[in-house]
Automatic annotation (TrEMBL):
<dbReference type="InterPro" id="IPR013079">
    <property type="entry name" value="6Phosfructo_kin"/>
</dbReference>
<keyword id="KW-0378">Hydrolase</keyword>
<dbReference type="GO" id="GO:0005829">
    <property type="term" value="C:cytosol"/>
</dbReference>
<keyword id="KW-0067">ATP-binding</keyword>
<dbReference type="GO" id="GO:0006003">
    <property type="term" value="P:fructose 2,6-bisphosphate metabolic process"/>
</dbReference>
<feature type="binding site">
    <location>
        <position position="274"/>
    </location>
    <ligand>
        <name>substrate</name>
    </ligand>
</feature>
<dbReference type="GO" id="GO:0006000">
    <property type="term" value="P:fructose metabolic process"/>
</dbReference>
<dbReference type="InterPro" id="IPR027417">
    <property type="entry name" value="P-loop_NTPase"/>
</dbReference>
<dbReference type="InterPro" id="IPR013078">
    <property type="entry name" value="His_Pase_superF_clade-1"/>
</dbReference>
<dbReference type="GO" id="GO:0003873">
    <property type="term" value="F:6-phosphofructo-2-kinase activity"/>
</dbReference>
<dbReference type="Pfam" id="PF00300">
    <property type="entry name" value="His_Phos_1"/>
</dbReference>
<dbReference type="InterPro" id="IPR029033">
    <property type="entry name" value="His_PPase_superfam"/>
</dbReference>
<dbReference type="Pfam" id="PF01591">
    <property type="entry name" value="6PF2K"/>
</dbReference>
<keyword id="KW-0547">Nucleotide-binding</keyword>
<feature type="domain" description="6-phosphofructo-2-kinase">
    <location>
        <begin position="1"/>
        <end position="216"/>
    </location>
</feature>
<comment type="similarity">
    <text>In the C-terminal section; belongs to the phosphoglycerate mutase family.</text>
</comment>
<dbReference type="InterPro" id="IPR003094">
    <property type="entry name" value="6Pfruct_kin"/>
</dbReference>
Amino acid sequence: MVGLPARGKSYLSNKLQRYLLWLEYQVKVFNVGQYRRQIYRKMAEESGHKADQSSNFFDTKNAEASKAREAMASECLEDLIRWLKAGGNVGIHDATNSTRKRRKALADRIKREPGLKLLFIESLCTDPAVIAANIAVKVASGDPDYDGQPPEQAERDFRERIKHYEESYEPFDPELDKDQTWCQMVNVGKQVTVNRIDGYLQSRIAFYLMNLHLTPRSIYFTRHGESQYNVEGKIGGDAPLSAQGEKYMEALPELIKQKLGDTPLTVWTSTLRRTIQTASLLPYEKLTWKSLDELDAGVCDGMTYEEIAEYYPEDYNARDDDKFNYRYRGGESYRDVVIRLEPVILELERQENILVVCHQAVLRCLYAYFHNLSQEELPYIKIPLHTVIKLTPKAYGCDEERFTLPIEAVDTTRYAD
């Protein structure tokens, strides 16, 4: 990462880590600030004196501190390299890396390691409102650097730290840095410049970054209303709503209106009629996605779990043993669904307020992405019928609210025997 403090580098690092983990890469963020705090905490414990980590520590004229910061950044980089050589796929060096000299040293070190590629990602922010908001989050989030300090004092010191970095900051330049591989983001998504992107993974990362933005928004998830197949205990199919499901269809518009007011909204559904029917009374623009269709149950489509246990006992047990990877005969696994949902994820990152009306397995995958949940957790996420889940992306995750309408529905969650 490259950029001044309060420019969203850690935000981007965490977003990128979450995306690549969801796509099953081994990813780890190495934050230089955490290294600095850990080292100085240990020194304080040994000496009994707390080291100065105020803005003075970041003054470019403070030779001793500058040397210490370089050493910490290098130690962090060496740990990253060791982790990659031990089997990791993507290591993210979360630091300012704000001068050409520092970036050259970093690039020269990576060149000495066969098989490693380097991509610089710069977060360049020129919007004073965004910078002020980032500073406020930094100060209010309980940052260890300002533990016990009044907010006003912490903000003053942090702004002084930024000024010190600004004195030597050298953003990427198309001419001066034409030989390096980099992606420069201006105001997180307003403008993106890429240079010498090399290979599939770097292209994938750059495309993901192009879809990000900081506009405040919420994403709403809901399953379709209860269907006839839900009542009968069958999986898959294209059944219509049950009587209870129709009640949910009728009540959903009022709930959404209460939560959004006049805020613009787009509704996404799958191509299956139970989702289209559920969304039919919502007075918003609607888009239909084939990618949002329910997990394909193959030869088990239209069967109950009891019938699957009777006719396909080996498959029934195999799915319980590894629910994420098990693929129905002629159908899909959760892993397959994750892969086909990547375009949906990219579009969700690009859009503002969206209501997604689809299915249990699909919503489990989307929910796991936004909450950074593991493959082991994903197939067991509780997504009940007749409930709207509101996710509001924040700097380091998502706030969540759930709204359940008082309309009875069957519980379709199946627990392993």
